[in-house]
Predict the structure.
Amino acid sequence: MKKKQKTKGEKKASGQYRWAATVFLLAVALSAVLSLASETMLAGAGMAAALLILALFIGVGILFDIVGVAVTAADPKPFHAMASHKEKGAKEALMLLRNASRVSSVCNDVVGDICGIVSGATGAVIVTQLQKVLSLRSVLFSVGVTALISGLTIGGKALGKTVAIKKSTKVVYWAGRFLHLFHR
């Protein structure tokens, strides 16, 4: 009895389900690691350390958003030229560009969303600490801090998207150079 070969459409659908499952598992694992790291760093941390951790999560979310957008906007031609001259990071940049949809999904959706969630949780810890210190119980204070965190994140990502589109070649080049450090 002959095995029925999968059609092109069936293979594509199977690959999409596999990718969705991979992204799901990656998101769960990365979220657990970042949440654990955040909780560990915030336990007993002072206000300055908590604010630094918050800024770190917001910054990482913005940085990954910039890379995700730049990868979808960049032209591969300069990287082919760089690769032919054996420039460090060019092969890695081309790998990012060949997998632009997946790279964008991981950078923008997985890492960006997780950083947003963890920064929100970090903000809640900061609000709790400030309310104890300042003897405040105002809902408006909590709403204000949450709104500020959201504004910084969204505003930073909006500015980052502009940079990512205008400077996509440079962004992808530096992402490739960074990845090159791990391919030795």
Summary: The mean pLDDT is 88. The helical segments are 8-42, 47-73, 77-84, 90-98, 100-134, 139-166, 168-180. The first helix runs from residue 8 to 42. DSSP finds seven helices and no strands in the chain.
